[in-house]
Amino acid sequence: MRRVLLGASVVLLSLAGSATAGRGDVRACRAADLTGVFAVVNGSAGAGSISYDLRLRNHSSSRCFVSGIPGLRLLGKTGKALPTKVVPDKPGALTAARIVLKPGGYAASTARFSPDVSGTGEPQYGRCEPTAYSLRVSPAGGGSLLASVLPSTPVCEHGRMVLTALVAGKHGSRS
Questions:
Q1: CA–CA gap between residue 112 and residue 44 (Å, rounded)
Q2: Is the pLDDT of residue 95 over 80?
Q3: Averaged confidence pLDDT in the chain
Q4: What's the rounded Cα separation, in Å, for the pair 63 and 100?
């Protein structure tokens, strides 16, 4: 039984290796390859929530790819970590696409959150959470980069953001 499982593992590893070899050997984007901004989607405010697009741009001289949902952490004015809870827009419903970014190319994701409706355990009057001025983004390729939050905003419900998977272009998908 052990020999059969080991053989199956070798076959799966071989198949995985051959599947990636035909894609031009494009590596995953590292933080050093990217610049980012987290900016409001004009006209998106309503019913106590708002949308922001996370835009990532490949500023390196070679192609690389991004995929899925990057790690995110909201930061205050002095860089202090703020509560952050990223929730996939449609968990289990979609497969993350591999977005190859040529030099100068963009990928984007859209976050929907409440900037002013308090969650359980947050102050009911005044700001629900401290204002976020930047966002630490951790792409799958490694490292982290800072993206400005434009305009700066609190993210209520303990930093809860519903985030779409990355897509090619300057604007994330709207759901």
A1: 9
A2: no
A3: 86
A4: 7
Handedness of CA 57, 141, 68, 39 (dihedral sign): negative
- Beta-bridged to residue 145, according to DSSP, are 137
Q: What is the pLDDT of residue 94?
A: 61
pLDDT of residue 172: 87
pLDDT of 43 strictly over 70:
yes
SS3 96: coil
The closest alpha carbon to 155, from 129, 125, 121, belongs to 129
- Sign, CA dihedral 145-150-153-159, equals negative
pLDDT at residue 21 above 50?
no
Geometric angle at alpha carbon 147, from 24 and 85, rounded to 5°: 95
Phi, psi dihedral angles at 11 (to 5 degrees): -65, -45
**CA 108, 17, 20 angle in degrees (round to 5)?**
30
Instruction: Find the helix or strand (DSSP H, E) in which 18 lies.
Output: helix 2-21
User: What global pTM score does this model have?
Assistant: 0.83
CA-CA distance, 128 to 119, in Å (whole number)? Answer: 8
| Angle value at C-alpha 59, between 57 and 61, nearest 5 degrees | 135
Residue type for position 58 = N
